[in-house]
Amino acid sequence: xxxxxxxxxxxxFKYKKKxxxxxxxxxxxxxxxxxxxxxxxxxxxxxxxxxxxxVYRHTVNGEKRDHIGESEIEAMYQQCKEFxxxxx
Length: 88
Known about the structure:
Helix content is 23%, strand content 40%. The chain has one domain (4-82). The protein is globular and about 45 Å long. By secondary structure, it is α+β, with helices and mostly antiparallel strands. Strands 1-2-3-4 form a 4-stranded antiparallel β-sheet, covered by helices on one side. The model has no long low-confidence stretch (mean pLDDT 80). The protein has helices spanning 4-10, 70-82; strands at 14-18, 25-35, 38-48, 53-60.
C-alpha cells in the first residue's frame, strides 16, 4: 500500500511539511494546473493540533473546483489512517 504522500504525488501534488507557531504540524499538498493562460493551484492542507486536525481544500486563481475526486479522497483517507484515526 502506498503512503498518503506517494498517493498525492502520483496525482501531481507536491508535499510540504512544517511546524508552526500555533499548531504542532502543518502538511500541505499543492497541485498546479495550467489551462491556456490561467494557472490553477489546488491546496489540500492538514493543520494538526494536539487535540484535533483540520482539513482544508481550496483552489486559487480562477474558478473554484467544487468537487473532490475519488483518488483525492482515497489519498486523504490514507493520510488520516497514518495519523492513527482508523484501525487497520
